[in-house]
Amino acid sequence: MPVSCMETGQTLTAKIAGEVDHHAAKDLMAQLGREIDAALPQSLELDLGGVSFMDSSGIAVVLRSYKRMKELGGGMTLRQVPPHAAKVLRAAGVDKLIPFLN
Amino acid sequence: MKPINEAKMTFLSRSTNEGFARTAAACFAAQLDPTLDEINDIKTAVSEAVTNCIVHAYPDRLGVVSMRLRLFEDNTLEIVIKDSGVGIPDVDRARKPLYTTGGADRSGMGFTIMESFMDTLKVRSVQEKGTTVTMRRRVSRRLGG
Ligand SMILES: Nc1ncnc2c1ncn2[C@@H]1O[C@H](COP(=O)(O)OP(=O)(O)OP(=O)(O)O)[C@@H](O)[C@H]1O
Ligand SMILES: [Mg+2]
């Protein structure tokens, strides 16, 4: 599961591509955790534009990053959330914690 | 009501089979000419049920998961996913949003998603015997198809 990252100032942009299910989630959480801890950003933009499938395992992936950013005193936004992933994330109320932006 | 088509498969509770199972269900559902949204809903619900077998039913061993797909004349797709794992002690509680025994890696939303993405969800479980999840979804008939 590829995560590609880019740092601009205090912002870390992480792009996830592919299918986010339980099979992929473990690697994905570990990779995102490593990137956040290396960059220690003020804000994280998690770009889901390349996500072709997501189930509830994706909720845990997003919330894990959110928790880590909060521990660091930073914020987080979600970018380019595809409609199918938005439906899953909204079911868990993720949109009330983390803004969905374009 | 008699099904007009049916497919059955069994597979091991390996996480690679999550993708296999939802893709197989989507291929079977394709004969109903579903919309992309309908296909995504069906794939997500199958992924939830199969992941539960892999994560919860067989927590520390490989077991067998079976999936039966049936199609009815009124354009209803029925999906039955079954394991012979540990079972669920209290199904009503397990179905509540955010209830999980899976710790921080899980969010407790699987059953809630199955319920809201499909028309009906039935869960039968016997401890130490296993769990059967039955879901139905009526696919819209499109004009001019
Ligand atoms: N096939 C199963 N066998 C045994 N226990 C199960 C099974 N399916 C679900 N459960 C139990 O029901 C609980 C709720 O399941 P649900 O899918 O709603 O959430 P989850 O799997 O814990 O988290 P998520 O699906 O959001 O990753 C599980 O934590 C588990 O205790
Ligand atoms: Mg689950």
Quickly describe the structure.
The complex is a heterodimer of chains A (102) and B (145). Chain A is of the alpha/beta class and 102 residues long.
Layout of SSEs?
The complex is a heterodimer of chains A (102) and B (145).
Chain A (H helix, E strand, L loop, with lengths): L2 E6 L2 E10 L1 H18 L3 E12 L1 H16 L3 E5 L3 H9 L2 H4 L2 E2 L1
Parallel strand pairs in A: 2-3, 3-4, 4-5
Antiparallel strand pairs in A: 1-2
Helix pairs in contact in A: 1-2
Chain B lengths: L4 E8 L3 H14 L6 H22 L6 E8 L4 E8 L7 H4 L15 H8 L2 E7 L3 E9 L7
Antiparallel strand pairs in B: 1-2, 2-3, 3-5, 4-5
Helix pairs in contact in B: 1-2, 2-4
Can you walk through the features of this model?
The complex is a heterodimer of chains A (102) and B (145). Chain A is an alpha/beta fold and 102 residues long. Chain A has a single domain, classed as STAS domain (Transcription Regulator spoIIAA, 2-Layer Sandwich). Chain A has helices at residues 22-39, 56-71, 83-91, 94-97; strands at residues 3-8, 11-20, 43-54, 75-79, 100-101. In chain A, strand 2, helix 1 (22-39) and strand 3 (43-54) form a beta-alpha-beta unit. In chain A, helix 1 (22-39) runs parallel beside helix 2. The longest helix of chain A is centred in the first third of the chain and has 18 residues, at 22-39. Chain B has four helices and five strands, in the order βααββααββ. Chain B has helices at 16-29, 36-57, 91-94, 110-117; strands at residues 5-12, 64-71, 76-83, 120-126, 130-138. Chain B has a five-stranded antiparallel β-sheet with strand order 1-2-3-5-4, covered by helices on one side. The interface between A and B is medium-sized, with 22 and 27 residues. Adenosine-5'-triphosphate binds next to helix 2 and helix 4 of chain B.
